[in-house]
């Protein structure tokens, strides 16, 4: 499998968008990558907007971007919580500085905004945060998936198939 040996972090907090977490996690695992769920509290079970659980295997504080090949940020209401933690913002900045794939969908753009990494970057998101993305310096496009270097973005759940493929392609170095 083309992603054998790759390791990815998937961020979780309560009220993540269920499909926007699990679809990319399973898609990356299908290609052979190892995915670790990470939240504020290790071993805590977080619940998605529609009731699907996700248990954090790690806390954000114990992770180092140098040990991973990519990071996934789901949408939902979780990003508005996740972006308030310095450990998460440091992870995002470290992935950005290392040009490792950062996947964000829907409201996940809020985390990248708070990490201050979007100046001049072409992205998409849910149209509801378009102004936020543009005010952070991003160039926003209404397309299912936008890839700008190592940043892979998508709008909403119907865009998950091309988003999953684009993130896997980025991890594979294509």
Automatic annotation (TrEMBL):
Q: Which residues form a coiled coil?
A: none
Q: Which Gene3D superfamilies match?
A: 3.40.50.880
Q: Where is the DJ-1/PfpI domain?
A: 6-167
SUPFAM superfamilies per the record? Class I glutamine amidotransferase-like
State one Pfam family annotation. Answer: DJ-1_PfpI
Q: Out of the domains of life, which is the source?
A: Bacteria
Q: What does the UniProt keyword field contain?
A: Glutamine amidotransferase, Transferase
Q: Does the keyword Transferase apply?
A: yes
The answer, when asked if Repeat is one of the entry's keywords, is: no
A GO MF annotation of the entry reads:
transferase activity
Q: What NCBIfam families does this protein map onto?
A: PfpI
Family indicated by similarity: Belongs to the peptidase C56 family.
- Spell out the protein name for this chain: Type 1 glutamine amidotransferase
């Amino acid at each position: 499998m083309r992603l054998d040996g790759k390791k990815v972090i998937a961020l979780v907090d309560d009220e993540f968008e269920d499909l926007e977490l699990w679809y990319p996690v399973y898609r990356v695992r299908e290609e052979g990558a190892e995915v670790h769920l990470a939240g504020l509290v290790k071993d805590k079970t977080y619940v998605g907007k529609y009731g699907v659980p996700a248990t954090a295997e790690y806390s954000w504080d114990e992770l180092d971007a140098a040990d991973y090949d990519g990071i996934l940020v789901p949408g939902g209401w979780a990003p508005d919580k996740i972006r308030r933690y310095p450990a998460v913002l440091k992870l995002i900045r470290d992935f950005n500085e290392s040009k490792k794939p950062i996947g964000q969908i829907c409201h996940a753009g809020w985390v990248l905004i708070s990490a201050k990494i979007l100046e001049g970057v072409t992205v998409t998101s849910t149209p509801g945060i378009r102004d936020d993305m543009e005010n952070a310096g991003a160039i926003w496009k209404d397309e299912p998936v936008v890839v700008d270097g190592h940043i892979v973005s998508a709008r909403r759940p119907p865009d998950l198939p091309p988003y999953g493929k684009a993130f896997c392609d980025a991890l594979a170095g294509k």
